[in-house]
Amino acid sequence: MQRVCSTFTAGFLLLLFCAGSAVHAEQLTQPLYYSPKFLEAKRLTTILEQPEDTIDFARAKLAIDKMVDPTIDVKANLKKIDAMVKQIKALLPAKATSTDKMLAVKKYIYEAGTWNNFQPYHYDFDDPSGTIVSHKLLPNYLASKKGNCVSMPLLLIVLGQRLGIDVTASTAPKHVLVKYTDSDTGQTYNLETTSGANPARDVWYQQTMHVTDQALENRIYLQKLSKQESLAVMATVLAESYYEKQDYEKAMMISDVVLKHNSNAVDTMLMKGSLFYKLLAKHYLNKYPTPNLIPVVERPYFEFLNINNRFWFEKAEKLGWREPTQADEINYLNKVKHDANLLQKQ
Hints:
This protein is of the alpha+beta class and about 350 residues long. Helices cover about 55% and strands about 5% of the residues.
């Protein structure tokens, strides 16, 4: 997450004021990024705009992952998922309830047994923050059995849907969790997949991940997302892959698609803010030590990028997001590692 240095932009805005800017006020406050669409954005839109009753989380996740890594074999991975579901069904009692099914999924994933070759899935301590894009891809998680706070909940959602369980995604700051609704009681629970998919109360996320009361009031965190919104959560990895490749314009377009289908996706808002910074750095900050050196003809575009950089961070803050301190992030990682270690020792 990066914002423009206020000293640099203050000097630039003073320069515009003295010289007289040709950019109108309505242009300065426009938060959109204008760029022609490209194939991946169109394909992603098609995936996200499926009718809710036709959404298959497994197929959608693999289709998105294949856009990140074209070598992914979608059919082969669907067969893996089908085989996993078959093994989970073998663990079920007759007339299994929703709870029975969820317990069987948890057993299959987290407990060593013949069903997983005595190799349960576990947290990836080599990439505890889930910063490596490839580690968020479902096929990599299936192959390595090492996951993070993106791949782990999404696998549970994929398997749960195949078993007829009411599961969707939910989010906390830089984190994905599962919302599970027991069809027999109507009760909805948070399931924390980095800790054995055990139930976790909202207050735990508030305390551990610094979810503010304002964020809850504005419904940006810990909400039970729709299937379409859950697909938008899955799609963020595509924007991240373009960001990692420094293809910032494409990352911007994918982010726009995500926000169109999940307007409260705060992490994507923050990515947009950072993307505008990257474009500023690419075109101006790394080239011109002072604002008066920017060619006059390019100053309106600089101003557009600068204002949008600030716009997206400020929007997230108004909704209740707070930038974590380094101590916050260390404490969170230590907590996740501690819980994952306890799970592995069981």
